[in-house]
Amino acid sequence: MTPVPxxxxxxxxxxxxxxxxxxxxxMSEHLGSSKQxxxxxxxxxxxxxxxxxxxxxxxxxxxxxxxHLEAVRNVAVKPDSNIDRFREWAVAGxxxxxxxxxxxxxxxxQTPRHINTSPxxxxxxxxxxxxxxxxxxxxxxxxxxxxxxxxxxxFARAAAFAKTAGFTGVQVHGAHGYLVSQFLSPxxxxxxxxxxxxxxxxxxxxxxVLAEIRKAVGDDFPIGIKLNSADFQRGGFTEEESMRVxxxxxxxxxxxxxxxxGSYESRVMLDKVDNTREAFFLDYAKKARAEVDIPMMVxxxxxxxxIMCDALADGSLDVVGMAxxxxxxxxxxxxxxxxxxxxxxxxxxxxxxxxxxxxxxxMMSVAQMRLLAKGKSPTLLLGRASxxxxxxxxxxxxLFKPKRP
Length: 405
Prior knowledge:
Number of helices: 14
Radius of gyration: 20 Å
Largest sheet: 8 strands, parallel, barrel
CATH class: Alpha Beta
Number of domains: 1
CATH topology: TIM Barrel
Distance between the termini: 54 Å
Strand content: 5-15%
Order of helices and strands: EEEHEEHEEHEHEHHHEHEHEHEHHHH
């Protein structure tokens, strides 16, 4: 078969080579242990994805601070972390020659209240969506200089840990309203010191994190960042500002930028996508190409093989990112590369929960990952129903018990 852009290798600025142009974007797997360690289920899930043909797998957010988690079943890098558990995960996830990058994250003000009643953030601005009314998040406090410095070093230590454990790169989560994104947004960063105010000051935190990671891992280890094209909120982080940040990242020598968008107050990443519209950050990527020349991955809406190939062929992007289709078919990347399928399919909707839109699809993806992690097919109807029920029970129960130290 005549090669198509999907299976062309990509050389990153650090010298690492991605074997093809398809990536599994991060999804929160909720498969860590109660002590935030990787589990055999997590390793089994990534072994299946490694065999599925994607050139790059990016893990769900691994937390750099056990006092700041997105959920109780996150994996976290801690001083007492058992590195052998992480090595098992890394070996399983790279077993078929692909890259496996650990996504590093700190949720900041988006830390659930039952985990931390006073999470660190740029400023004392609470989330203002329905979750606030339910008091799901703690009341954030504005971090002082010492706390900011410690968080930056925690990112660097976690990256060095990931490298030692055998992961082939790291990605900093700088989107979706988490801490790095909070520093970038003028809605959540009200500081008047060197960490807030102008865009250059608001971007200082992200750049400091990336700089310290580079010092910790060396020049030949891939470092990426997930960045919002915009927050899609009035007065928030804009597309123009995002473009300017891309220029800063190019100066800093970033290896791969993944473009996404939205936050928990404007949930673009969970909105139901119109089936007639694909790659809804592709227009942004095309504009960015006129401003910067850095490897770019775009995630959000890609489903048709023809559109993926066209976007790669015309240089709009370098890597196609997908997430939910990997939970429906763990071999979707190889099927697209080999031409066995012309369209990547999402998991089916949960019966009776269609009104929840994207939230229903996200819950189904978690359920599908649980099935794959058990070595089961993601298409078993009864298995899906039981997995959804188990996931909802476990996450709900966690609200009523304290997190283990």
